Please model this.
Amino acid sequence: EFAIRSHEIFVLATTDRTVLDFDKYEKLQDGSTLYLLQREDQALPVATEEHIMFTPHFDTLIQCGTYEYYSSEGQNSLPYAIAELIDNALSATAKKTGTRTIELRMLFDESLGKPAVIVLDNGCGMTSKQLNNWAVYRLSKFTRENSSFQEGYVRPVPVPRSLNSDISYFGVGGKQAVFFIGDSTRMISKAVGSPDVHELILSKEEFERKEKNKEDVYRGTIRNRKPGDSSHVRENDQRFLHELISEEPGKQSFTAVVITGIKSEHITFLKEDFAKWTRELAHIYHYYIHGVNGNDMSRKSTNSDHLPKIDIQVTLREKSNRCPRVMNLREVDDDMQTLYINATADMFEFKATTGQDRGTVEGLIRYHPFLYDRETFPPDPYVVQAPANDEDESGVQHQARGKRPIFECFWNGRLIPYAKIDEFQWCTQKGNDVPDECYSRFSGVLFTDDRFQVTTNKLTFMDLEMKVKSKDTIFTRVVNGQAQRSIIEKDFRKWLQNCHKKWDKQVKFLGFREIITRKDLATKKMQHPWATFSSIELDGKLYKTDQLVKSQKTNPIHHGTVVRFLLYGEHKSDVFATGGQVEVCLEPKALYAMTKIIPISKIDRTVTDAAIKKNIENDFAKLPDKLKVDWPDGNPWPQNAVRPAGMPLGKTVIEILNKKGESISRMPTVGQSTVIKLCIELKNFVISSFYVISFVAQHSPKWGFWFRKIENLIKPGRYTLFLSTIISESNATIFGGRNLPSYELNFTIKEGNAESFVTGTVSSTLHVGTPFDIPLHLKDQYAYSHLLTSGFFRQCERSQLVLHTKLEKLNIACQLVILCKIFSIPYFILQTHELKVILPGLKKDTQTIKISLLPGNPHSLHVNTENNPVIVENRNPVKFNVEIRDEAGNITAHPRQTVHCKVQGLPPAVVDCSSTGAGQLLTKPINLNIIKGEPQTLKVQFEVPVTLVVRELKVMPSTRVSLIKIYSRDDKNLVLRNNERVEWLAGGSLEGLFYKLYDEAYRAVPLTAEIASKIKVNWKSEVDLKYLVQGKLPDIMVPTQVHEQRFFQVSYQDQSVSVSFTIIPRPNEPHRLKATLPQSAVKLGETLSENISEYEPDQTKIILFHRLTSICVNHMTVEAEGLDKSAITFIWQVGTEIVTGIRFQCGTPGWREMCFTYQKYVACVKVEVTAGNPAQLQLVSGPELPLQVLNGHGIPTPFLIQLSDEWGNPSSDQRVVVELWPSPPALKVSVTVTSQPVNLEGKAPFTVTSVNGPKGYYQLEFKGSFNNKPIPGPSVNLTVLPDPNKPVSLSVKYDTTAMFPAGGLFPVFSVTVVSDEGSPMTTFNPAAASMWLWEGVPLGKIPPQTATPLVCSKPMENERKDCFHFRDKEIPERAGKHIVQFSLRIDATNYLYSNQITLNVVANQPVKLAPDSQPPAPVVSCCTDIANRTLVENMTLRIMDSYGNPAGQDLGGQVVVSITSSGNKNLPLFEGKRRTHCISLAEGQAHITRLAIMENSPGEDGSAYTLCFQPQVSMLPQTLFPFELTFHFYNGMMFFLLFFNKTLKLEADRILKMPRRVYSVRDNFRGQQDVLGMVGHLAYVQDDAAARVISWFIRGDMDCVITRTSEAARRIHRDTQGRQQVMPLDSIYVQPQNRPLPHMRNGHMLFDPPGNPVHARDLLIYPNNQECCDKVFKNILGETLLIDDLESANNYRRMVVQNNMHCPTILTREGDCISAKGKFGGKQNKAPPTGALKMFGAPIPQPYYAVKEQIDLLSRYRAAVEKREKAEKDREDHLQDMKSPQMKKKQEDMREKIMQLEALERHLGMFVDLREKDAGEPSGIITKRVK
Model:
């Protein structure tokens, strides 16, 4: 308790220092902590504790499963958690006018306490209430209260790139981040204007303690204290807090997030990967740090948008004795956006406006050109770059971007790391105007605001891709900040075409030939397609087919002719492209014998044709040219000599000579190649036959090449002796496409005399009656065929050919051609026989042949029957035995021997005698109609292809039962015949019936128990067998109804013999009257649709009295309530009386009884009478009348309409439709249902939701329709009153006389909301009013989606309060027509728009001279070539305002151009040795045709100078800013080399750092013994679409570790406790060969395959262990196919199945899957988007290798230049030394010594004058003679 004196002044305030009055006090919640202070800003004498509750917001329950914090796609997710805390800091510093400072302090120094992470900012801070709100999980800025008495959230003003700092959003990220990083967080904050510091601690340990002790988990305390007070920090492991708290005094506001309990893996990552995670943070906040233009290092400026500077500084302290690591994120120069920006040659800017939410996306596309032999697209620094492969000569330029998505996505200015959009349709529609590679040379970025939803962890968008790719999205190009009215597809393609033409440097391929497949490439993916060309244009020089070329940078250097040029891809005509290859045929071909494919870049472009030809000719002269043949033993054989058989061919000696006449025995060597030895091969050929002799002679140093005599030439014929030079190792006679030298000798060998003969092949098996031939061949002494002469033929004519045989009846015919034919043999012989042939006059004149005889061809048909005719009983089949015989009567079997048997009236019978020659025919049972029991005769025909046989068949009557007759014992005359109709008294019976059976001869069949058991009757299911054996039948009961006829049948079941008859009952005497109704109900006023019948009940038809006449209708009456008797009519029919005209005219619906009377008979029936036809509508219930409704409001009470007939009875006919119509039509009525059928009760309710129309009187009319006929209904009078709370228009007022200079401010726009009454409305929030601004012309009634929204300003004191004010709005920076329109958001879906106002924006004040576009920095030299001295060419400079608008159309003067430099006095001079150059300036512009420096201009080699274009205009009071252009000047080769080498190294580093797709799962097992690695790391996939669908298809195997041995697999399984899946290679088996695609069979296509099918595994690129990886992916992917799209895949599968082949699983590039079972569709068969997958990585870009090759070439060239310069210097130094006095003196001394030596030798007699040599001694030999 305490007391307050009456004179003391105090204030009562909350912990937020909000002073309470009565109203505010009433709003306080129970349990609030209050201060009793002497003044509002009084400092707290001691710290206080405020108890708070931070129960999670209800959104936690309803959205808890919507957004979950998931793993970060292989990247460590810690940077993204830290980014959540930076987001909060950016939001807190959003309104900071000075430098916005954010510090990240990583305290891992044990001397300071336990590890901690601190995020500190100088933002607005938080009050205790706001700190309490921060603790509430999922309490977003839209639902939280910033304090107890402040308003809610207001969306910020739109700014470029959405850099509004509005990124602390959901009330989730901060808590989620701190507990992801550590276990505890301490929030320390001081709000602006508050003297107190608020401190809150949230700890996992504390939460668990409270839960364990059953305490309130969500209750805590906020410590409120004065700045700098750290007395509450007593823990030794938090000593660092004292230093942090000591910094608080003097700070206006701040917030510090202190996280402790840091996880060990996070500490390791923060220490070891400091550069990596700081680079990722710099990437996320790139545009907040560097401004809207990004980190363009060429401009050397940041924050180009003049926004407050943002400093994000990171400090990492590890040990006290080590200097802390400090990094300002502004200094990071290798984040992806920096790399993209600084590798950009041109930009394409656009905007995308989505549908109803009017979300706007700003977009940039940056072009990274191909320069000479490399791509400039930046590499991804997170991707591990593969090492360069020097052996790779494919020449194919890999795509720069690869398969990575084009667009990175930023939300409110910060990066959303996992949100990447692959493409838009308009920027990927490839055409013929630019090469396909250009579509992979641009990167992109999208900037969105909060109209697009992101997940709470800000890792990905929820709806961005769906919205921007919607058909309602409008894309607009932006030029100089202004939207263009054009077709963006055309603009983009034109821009891309211009980029390619202006920036790309490529090779032009000319003369297209064909598309080929290259099997020489190891990678199957790269084998097809390859386009071939006949020529190229490279660096201004034309290279053609057959042109001589020389290679460079190859080992060895190649010379040869161009075969063709190759370019990968589907090209059909001339094309510009990167890379490419050339196929060179190495010359001379005879020496090299091969072609070589090298990259086009390795063609030596400096060598001359003469030098190449000379090298080729020198090599060609060394090759073998001819053979020299000698005959050492004499007797050489001349050409075409004729020699007898057996004569030897003499010994030969051969020499191989080259073109120089030199004898050689080996091929000339090429470099270090293997020595190729030569041999001589001798082949002796018989023309048109195989060679007889073949020898190979090796070279002998003594004898050379030689062959012995050939003595076995005995075969007659023409011979060729062929001597050829061959390669010793391969026996090849062709080397390099050229035949090696050879020698050919033709001669003839004659045959000897005939001495014997042989018989040719004769078939060992002969058939009876079939001729056969015996061929005879004459032989000489060597057993070779002897040619028949004319003399021999004359001898044969005179002699006789004798054929001896053991067959006596064998007939023989002799022929002149020595062929024998044996004709028919009369009987069949099974033994083997010998046939002897004798030819007189020869040494061996007899030959014997063995033959065997078999039956001959079919000749006749034999039918074996005992009797003729053949007798058979009717209804039985017939059997016939048949045989087929040859001419001799032998049974013979031949293929297709079929015997047909045709019996009259029966189907043919067939038997196959192909295998045995005999068979049995069985016909169908014969079923004739026997007449009078007499037999009948039939003809039977037997047919075979060779003959026809006819037999007779006699059919006898059958003894089976064929007839049944029924008699009556009571009536002897009664015989029931088949199908007879019998009348019998109704209700009576037929008794005493019995039956008899007869066969086909009408003989009575005796009844036995067996026969009687087969008798069946249809009127009784079971009959006593003993009665049937006696012939008795059961009695028949006649029906009681007259019209009920009955069918009766008696049948003999097995033979289908039956007799049937029908009994018709006769009527009996009548006894009562009965009436029936055709329908049970009838409507009021309607007549029954059918007639009522009255009949006697014992008849089936309607019969009243038997034998009565039609007079009875006069005595018939009918009575019923409400019955209209005037229309009733009675009509007589036989036995029936029809009543028509039944109709009820009045009464209520219900059941009514009708009574029919005739004499004493009465019949009553009941009929239901229902309501009549619908005739009117009645209003049953509705709102009270008179009815008055406010305009725009509804009628809460529904109208209930009842359908009735003309008597007012409710009708439920649901075919009636009721509609509601307003009258007159000016009234617009919204109804839940405008028309509807009535319900089961005949009612239709109508609820009017809104009524809109001018003030006045109206009617609501209800109308019905039935079968297109109207039904009248009621009408209700309605009065519409104006709604004072309904806005109907916007009134806009502004200064219409004002000018609108670009970049200035608009005048104040006052917008009044006019109500339905015409009065202004003040109930709307200013945030609901918007101003829309766009460039162009008025468009419809609403602003376009590309319009820029502007928010309403707060009203000033002197302004009206009944309207909205839009003040200080910036005028667009681009001059031209602009449109302004204002809108008011009435509710979530309704907007009110003003009229569109056209404003003319004019240029601002002229301030500078500038070109239309910034030219690149020129590089000049002081050479004579004008092209290398040109500084500027065809450039126009204009006077502009500060925003780039032409602003000096009425100004003139001149532009003075000068060259300046900082600190360099040696300045280059313009042409004419001028230091300045003047250009006329007219109408605000100056055109420069060409500006160049003079020849041999002064200047410092390697310096950079500035061209200054200074405008001189006398009409302006101020000086215009000049245009400055930097250029480089060089004058020496060494500087050029150093400069270019440095540029190439930077380019190589840039390529390595370019973003590249990677498999993001870390492989912890790679490098271990016998471990290959994870599946996802074993292969690369170039194509993005293929990588996506293949990675998804084998997603379950991507993290599987592949080992070489099972032991290694078991080790990993054991170490990971079974959590890691493994696959050992030694436990799997795959087929070694590759199966062809399903549409291929035996090397041919079964059909033309759609969709470019390939095996999915063929798209994988293996960087290492290719054989093992091939086995792995054969096992995983199998025969899985990849096809372009789903339609092609389905067509392909259908065609494969139609060819009776199994179709494997098919994947499509669109992400679909068709299983091997044919199933497709659904989410389970569709790959998710790229961002949700862990995909195969992409290979390293090919341009990297080209750049490395250029670097190596430059290094070698530089070394050569340095070596040359050193040699020249050494030579000059040596020459100078030779001329020195010391050297001259030494020369004189040397001459004196020589003279002394000569004198001494003369004295000794040893001197020889070398100038006088002995003529007999060889030159160069010195002979000394000694006495």
In short: The CA atoms of residues 728 and 821 lie 58 Å apart.
